[in-house]
## 1
Amino acid sequence: MDKISNHPTEELLAAYSAGSLPLSQALCIATHLEQCRDCMHELQQLDRVGSELMQQLEPAPAPERLKQEMLDRLDSLEDDSREAVFGGDPSIPRCLRKFVSTDYRNMRWRRVSPGIQTVELCRDSNGARVELLKIKPGSAAVTHTHSGDEYTVILEGSFSDEHGLYRKGDFVVKHPRDRHTPVATLDRECICLAVTEGPIQLTGFFGRLLNPLLRRNYA
Ligand SMILES: [Zn+2]
């Protein structure tokens, strides 16, 4: 496997370890972690520091009802993770198997341009859109900037933009003012997990005409 060269920042990993990230961002980090031993190792160190700090705190006694609710939630999580571990295609990251049960190809893809298809997986409570993108070999997305942060994890294939080449496992963050034109490499189709916190802003004359349509997806 090619070496992963784009990773989440230490701040993002620390927030993931503390459980303070929105679920959509946490899903991107978890998807990257399943493929990146370096970040998994860093996370284990952060978890250790976090649990040492927690041990220094004196817990207030939890009321009985709250305790029972937490136990019930843990039970249901275990059910989910059993299903995630034993169900689905092993080439699909475990944390995505809830959404992609059989194969990326069997999903209800929606064509957004001749070379690009998308399927929405879920919405976060903060409004962020979680989707898969499928880009045909050599196809380019239109040049765009962002109205919020955009997180991308490459699941299959690779793509490049003005800033570099991104391969399977890479974790890419674009901020609102970053302008880029992603192009899938010629060798194979590229499939990515993408989280966008607001509509992308297309640049250029035709792009400006289409922007109101894209904003409707977040209404
Ligand atoms: Zn990593």
Note: The mean pLDDT is 82.
## 2
Amino acid sequence: MISLIPSPDTVLQMLKRTGAFREGHFVYPTGKHSPHYFQMPLAFRYYDTARVLAVALSRKFRLERDISSQLPKIAVISPSSGGIPVAFGVRDALSAEQIYWAEKEANGKRMFRQYVNQGEVNPCIIVDDIIRSGHAIEETLGLVKELGARVLGCGAIVRFTSAPDKLEDVPIMSLVEFDAHMYDDETGCKDCKKDTPAEHVRF
Ligand SMILES: [Zn+2]
């Protein structure tokens, strides 16, 4: 079964082909500079690509006895809108019973979009499209624990290697582990030194 999971190179090629992974000279809204840019929803606009990525991630979860033995009484949870297509794809592949997603409120606090009560959320896996800092998935873990649910697994299509590789004792699965280069401003940026024109990106 493990052989049905595409290699990190294959996944990166899919992300490149769909425009979800680009190389160049980018400036983020935070002012940070980087030679690469991920906009994962561009990969998820194509149903076939979305399905291949979500099914691949779901296989990693299915290999975990603690998860497969509890199916279908599992919830798949996305920390943000970006993870919703991943959550639906993984839910579908696992035939998991529940799906939830969180959003950031105007006050900056992350909340579940669904009104849910203590004890209503099945043991869960948290999935996102990309884990850059790990803050979103950590905040979601906090929400899940407040609701009294157990986190059995978590994962994303891409995880930056600068982000944590586990949440408490739960390892973070991913299809690609990416060593992202980020510069706080133009002073350290190699592309600024070469006077390469920069593209300002929204996310
Ligand atoms: Zn730069």
Note: The pocket of zinc ion is lined by residues 25, 33, 186, 189, 191-192, 198 (CB under 6 Å).
